[in-house]
TrEMBL record:
Calcium found in the keyword field: no
Keyword Cytoplasm: no
Family membership: Belongs to the aldehyde dehydrogenase family.
PROSITE patterns, sorted: ALDEHYDE_DEHYDR_GLU
Protein's recorded name: Aldehyde dehydrogenase
The entry's keywords: Oxidoreductase
The organism of origin for this protein: Mycolicibacterium thermoresistibile (strain ATCC 19527 / DSM 44167 / CIP 105390 / JCM 6362 / NCTC 10409 / 316) (Mycobacterium thermoresistibile)
Residues of the Aldehyde dehydrogenase domain: 16-477
Active-site residue numbers: 254
MF-aspect GO terms: oxidoreductase activity, acting on the aldehyde or oxo group of donors, NAD or NADP as acceptor
């Protein structure tokens, strides 16, 4: 992997030598083998990255002052540079975090360029100033300007896609950025840096400082930062939200979930298993919006459990780089231990495992956990309340639709979800009653033209769609006579 050799930090359009000797050990999720060590950013590195982003933003003829058309040309060149590296990016992500290559080849390899092109075009269509007739019959100029230097902090589960949920709209809006990748997934961020180097994005507009929690916390509070965009756990989101509250610093938080998949009594589940997989088990269960609380009607409970059990057993578990793999390993040993801990707790609280529950017999290395189905789960059980972040489904019975909706809404979270039915109109009626940021009927397919985000402890603000661009813009009203 010569193109992903550790080089220091991508700051101000070049590779800066690390200020400290601290290093991050990268590990291959499918084997547990060490890959390499890379430098971890400390405060001085973050200072340098924020300084570069600040200068690039404050430059009176710089990125923030380019026309949307000029920015679009540069953003398109970045999209092209990423596209030519798509395969390498997918491989780097899957090697590090265990995402099946069939998924990373689509999400990590393709989505970033699509998002860049979508937002560059959207920003070009949007006028910088808009005239409104004022209350008194005069005119008001409503002016949109970029919010400034953005600290973008991302998790390891979809490292590139989630970076671009932020980077694509912020670049289109005219902001500059300091990205802090997770310590588990650093190699793909080097490929991103190489693509930036090849593109026409000016020096200092995007800076990348991989590091752990302390690096992230330091970046969040940095006086040179104007806005924070975070995706990650609810616990970290609370800490970041508190800091931003104190600083009155705008913040977008995309956090954890425990979404419900409501199977209505008329659903033809066997015909929808491919879509059901995407909505409940995608990326080894390590996707924030998955509907891992499966709500099944009592009248068809045993049948539903059997269908899901057979389906989970049929999934091909294996090395993330194998094109046939449907379920790869978890991202880290810690994550594997955590998921096994939840499985033990689920058992202890009275859940009945119908398949899975441990390490696959034929895989003695890597951070694997078998696809697991729990029946006889109550919504009060720990495995129905907390985010497991692994290939574990809990099947909860309900008596009627009102009870299904009540169970779906009885959660600290509200991020995704789905409704399964032979009557799509009925599905929409049920979907409307669920307290969540997004929900699918007979599928769950993220749409980057529509807002994505959470309610309750799943987050604050929205990414994607025009709303995702507005999140990086300031508004000024100029009142004319
Ligand atoms: P995490 O919160 O531990 O880490 C996420 C990122 O934040 C990492 O880069 C980490 O170094 C950094 N970080 C951690 N604590 C921080 C702090 N106090 N201040 C600043 N930065 C800090 O999450 P994770 O385990 O890497 O990711 C899994 C979590 O992310 C899950 O809970 C999942 O649901 C959530 N997630 C949410 C979405 C969404 O869009 N809502 C998408 C993907 C993942």
């Amino acid at each position: 992997m010569t193109e992903t050799e550790p080089k220091g930090f991508w700051i101000d359009g070049g590779w800066a030598a690390p200020a400290t000797s601290e290093r991050i050990q990268l590990i291959e999720a499918s084997t547990g083998d060490p890959i390499t060590t890379v430098p971890a950013a400390g405060p001085a590195d973050v200072d340098a990255a924020v300084g570069a982003a600040r200068r690039a933003f404050d430059d009176p003829t710089g990125w923030a002052h380019w026309t949307a058309e000029q920015r679009r040309a540069a953003i398109t060149s970045l999209a092209d540079a990423l596209t030519s590296r798509g395969e390498a990016i997918a491989k780097a992500v899957s090697t590090q975090n265990g995402m099946p290559i069939s998924i990373s080849s689509v999400t990590e390899a393709v989505m970033p360029a699509m998002l860049l092109n979508y937002y560059a075009e959207l920003a070009e269509q949007q006028p910088v100033e808009e005239k409104r007739t004022s209350f008194t019959g005069g005119t008001t100029l409503v002016r949109r300007t970029p919010v400034g230097v953005v600290a973008a902090i991302v998790p390891w589960n979809f490292p590139q896609t989630l970076t671009f949920f932020k980077l694509a709209p912020l670049l289109a809006a005219g902001c500059t950025a300091v990205i802090k990748p997770s310590p588990e997934t650093v190699l793909d961020s080097y490929l991103l840096a190489e693509a930036i180097e090849e593109s026409d994005i000016p020096a200092g507009v995007v800076n990348i400082v991989p590091g752990g929690r302390e690096t992230g916390a330091y970046l969040v509070e940095h006086p040179g930062v104007d806005k924070v965009a975070f995706t990650g756990s609810t616990a970290a989101g609370r800490a970041i939200g508190e800091a931003c509250g104190r600083l009155i610093r705008p913040v977008t938080l995309e956090l954890g979930g425990k979404s419900a998949s409501i199977i209505l009594d008329d659903a033809d589940l066997p015909a929808l298993l491919e879509q059901f997989f995407a909505a409940t088990l995608m990326n080894n269960g390590q996707t924030c919006y998955l509907g891992t609380r499966v709500l099944a009607p009592r009248s068809r409970y045993a049948e539903t459990v059997d269908i899901l059990t057979d389906f989970a057993r049929s999934l091909k578990v294996g090395n993330a780089l194998d094109a046939a793999t449907q379920i790869g390993p978890l991202a880290t040993e810690n994550q594997q231990r955590r998921v096994q801990g939840y499985i033990e707790k689920g058992r202890a609280e009275g859940g009945r495992i119908t398949t899975g529950g441990g390490r696959p017999a034929d895989l003695d290395r890597g951070w694997f956990v078998e696809p697991t189905v729990f029946a006889d789960v109550a919504n009060s059980h720990t495995i129905a309340r907390e985010e497991i972040f692994g290939p574990v489904l809990t099947v909860i019975p309900y008596t009627d639709v009102d009870e299904a909706v009540a169970i779906a809404n009885d959660s600290e979270f509200g991020l995704g979800g789905s409704v399964w039915t032979s009557d799509p109109e009925r599905g929409v009626q049920v979907a409307r009653r669920v307290q969540t940021g997004s929900i699918g009927v007979n599928n769950y397919t993220l749409d980057f033209r529509s807002p994505f985000g959470g309610v309750k402890a799943s987050g604050l603000g929205r990414e994607l769609g025009p709303e995702g661009l507005a999140a990086y813009q300031q508004l000024t009203s100029i009142f004319l006579a």
